[in-house]
Input
Amino acid sequence: MTAETPGSTEADAPHVLVRTEGRAGFLTLNRPRAINALTHPMVLRIQEALTAWEHDPAVETVVIQGAGERGLCAGGDIRAIYDDARTGGTATLGFWRDEYRLNAHIARYPKPYVAFMDGIVMGGGVGVSAHGSFRLVTERSRVAMPETGIGFAPDVGGTHLLGRAPGELGTHLALTGAQADAADALLTGLADHFVPSEDLPRLAAELTRAPAHQVLPRFARTAQPGRLAAARDWIDACYAAGTVEEIVDRLLDHGVPEAKETATLLLTKSPTALKVTLAAVRRARSLDSLEAVLDMEFGLSSAALSSADLVEGIRAQVVDKDRDPRWTPATLAEVTDADVARYFAEPSEPRQIR
Output
């Protein structure tokens, strides 16, 4: 991890530190007090560096990591999104457009892209890591797409990733926003390798001298067992239902206490976001590319920007922190098919990402 320069403040320092050493280029997200939450300028700086290194024969491997001790990235700067949405602005659309294009670029990057998914990795943090060619989790990793809790749906290619998880595990993570530890991230395909956090500095040093495919096997270890593997039976059975209401009913009727607890958790989330998310994860499975999914997600995000739930969810979770959002509509039964369909209407500017 990269420390701040003595005597400097976070506001004075670049929010993305870009450097090369030996064979490797390093991107360090550098807003540790905000758990390295992404801003629009940060997205543009990462894209600029990746584009330059793509054509630089001296850079053979790219590494992305987070400054500080708390995590790689907690997601997008949702306070800025809140301010924009509350005032009817459109700046967030430009941020999302460039962010999703960056996600697609990472997925198609022609050189090894190694993501240190240490600590908290959520939302936009998943977008800049889990599409890479080498995704490394540690014993400290907490990987999540928690959007339904703020009246939003998984984006940054999250529905693409979760839609391809085994069985209904991805649906469970998408609807609940539950955090995946290292083993769960590996099981669901959000990560490739487990590396103890204390070994990351030494691994980074080795990547400056040798190719990633040669270095990583020397550092990879076996993660401690997670929770999802043991819960697979009830998750697959309950989340295979056709609607969110049916999923909740199955969870409540299931004999496993954890299933009932999950139903209670789901009923605290935005009812509209839950229904939109379920539809999005299932549609993502049938789309032919990440770019097509990102196009779909851009439409979802655009619709959410003008919704009451996004503003209310961020207010309750981040601004006032009362943890008591007042969703509109307030119940699953009140969310109509037409309400959900609005999120999937053809955008006025199609093919945003490709």
The longest strand covers residues 16-21.
